[in-house]
Amino acid sequence: MKFYNREIEKQELINIRNLSYESHSKLTVITGRRRVGKTSLILHALDDEPFLYFFVGRKSEADLCDEYVKEISLKLNIFVPTMDRFSDIFRFLMEQGVQKKFTLVIDEFQEFINVNESVYRDIQNFWDQYRIKSHINFLVSGSIYSLMVKIFQDKKEPLFGRADSMIKVKPFNIDVLKEILNDYKPGYENDELLALYTFTGGIPKYVELLVDNTQLTIPGMIRFLCKDSSPFLDEGRHLLIQEFGKKYGTYFSILSAIGRGMNTQSEIEAHLGEKSLGGQLFKLEDVYEVITKTRPIFSKEGSHTVRYEINDNFLRFWFRYIESNQSLLEIGNNEGLMKIIENDYATYSGKTLELYFKQKLAESQIFRNIGSLWEPKGDQNEIDIVAVSLFEKKVLIVEVKRQRKNFKPQAFEEKVLILKKKELNRYDIETVCWDLTDM
Questions:
Q1: Where in the chain is the domain with CATH 1.10.10?
Q2: Distance between terminal CA atoms of the chain?
């Protein structure tokens, strides 16, 4: 699959490089979840000049340094003495940066924790000494998002406050997914766009896997997801064990419960037989950014009417179907998993269609608030989407259905009338039903 989007991020990286060369060294941190395309972005932004690329694998410090010395010698075309400590290499590069202008990329930067944690202190020391008098475009990226944030935003860490820029790489937006389907499956159906959004969440690597294997029909996507050699089967586990570390068990159980539709704290605690999971839910939301705590639109910040949702489409799907059906995979019944997903797809994707339209509204950038509405003691009078205009006293209220024939106008208008009396008596209200044809 060809390289898509990222024009804004690419230009930002080019501008930072120019500033580094013209003024003084700049440190840029590139974050984002695994498979979102951080390394690809860097490679495409810097493809017009040679640059130093260090990958931090789980090797000894001496072995890594041996690789880095060879890279420096090759790319900078200079003699490099043998060094077996990264602190010596970094100091050497900062000294070179006083006379030379070059880009240094360190990928999987958080892995230095497993190599030699003092590396961060050493980088801070020499960066502070040489930053103003050198001209290095210093880029670091990492696939464990929570650790990358901690390294640069925790006041207790040596590199706190050293980043000149932090770029968070996000999944492809809806327009890019449409562009990809137009390129690789002209005349695609909207349900196929919804399936691509449902299964991948716009994560570039997942989209690329389906595109490169020419699996862009709904049956084809499901078949590829479920086949014995599919990289998707273990992806959720690998992704989150990296983030959570050894204590992933409780977090997995919570996410499994949410994936199965238990989205209040009391429901999750009852399902897991735990007295309180408030601390774990807080970390999942604020530290790992895997779940989102949602309240009915217009409710106050302290309202106890709260639902938890997995905020990554792929992980939502993975916990709902793959993690919860591990017993099928253990006995090699991948066909059974495929049939479960096929039979449930229409129902499951109905919820994702609502998320799709919310994202589409958000990407329009003409609304100040987008949410849903439900009552504290249940889902009565629930409204799928309420979007408040950014500048005008206007509100868009949407009922989402996969098929328009399932829409009940009278029931919908009754719910809207209740909302109008309670919250929206001063707003102009537009009501609409959106289905697959409106994507």
A1: 178-356
A2: 24
Residue found by looking up tokens 């238990």 in the block? 262
**Distance of alpha carbon 199 from alpha carbon 187, whole angstroms:** 20
**pLDDT < 70: residue spans in the chain:** 377-380
Q: Where are the alpha helices (DSSP H) in 203-264?
A: 204-212, 218-226, 232-244, 248-259
CATH class of the domain comprising 365-438 = alpha beta
What is the rounded CA–CA span in Å between residue 419 and residue 391? 21
Answer yes or no: are the C-beta atoms of 179 and 290 closer than 8 Å.
no
Residues spanned by CATH 3.40.1350 within the chain?
Answer: 365-438
Q: How big is the CA angle at 253 (ends 168 and 239), to the nearest 5 degrees?
A: 35
Cβ neighbours for 105, distance < 8 A, ≥ 6 positions apart:
42, 46, 51, 52, 53, 54, 139, 140, 141
Contact 328, 217 (CB under 8 A): no
Tell me if 243 sits within 8 A of 33, measured CB to CB: no
Distance CA 201, CA 309 (A): 14
Range 7-168: architecture per CATH = 3-Layer(aba) Sandwich (3.40)
Tokens of 285: 């939301």
Buried b (16+ CB within 10 A) or exposed e, 268-283: bbeebeeeebeebbeb
Nearest CA among 5, 96, 73, 93 for reference residue 45: 5
Q: What is the DSSP letter of 317?
A: H
**Residue 378's pLDDT is what?**
58
Tens digit of pLDDT for each residue in 162-191? 999 999 999 999 999 999 999 999 999 999
> Are the beta carbons of 112 and 144 closer than 8 angstroms?
no
**pLDDT score at 379:** 57
In this prediction the pTM is: 0.91
Segment 230-281, tens digit of pLDDT: 999 999 998 898 888 877 889 999 999 999 999 999 999 999 998 889 999 9
3-state helix, strand, coil in the chain (%, to 5): 55, 15, 30
Q: Which CATH number fits domain 178-356: 1.25.40, 1.10.260, 1.10.10, 1.10.287?
A: 1.10.10
Q: Across all residues in the chain, what is the average pLDDT?
A: 93
Please, where in the chain does CATH 3.40.50.300 lie?
Answer: 7-168
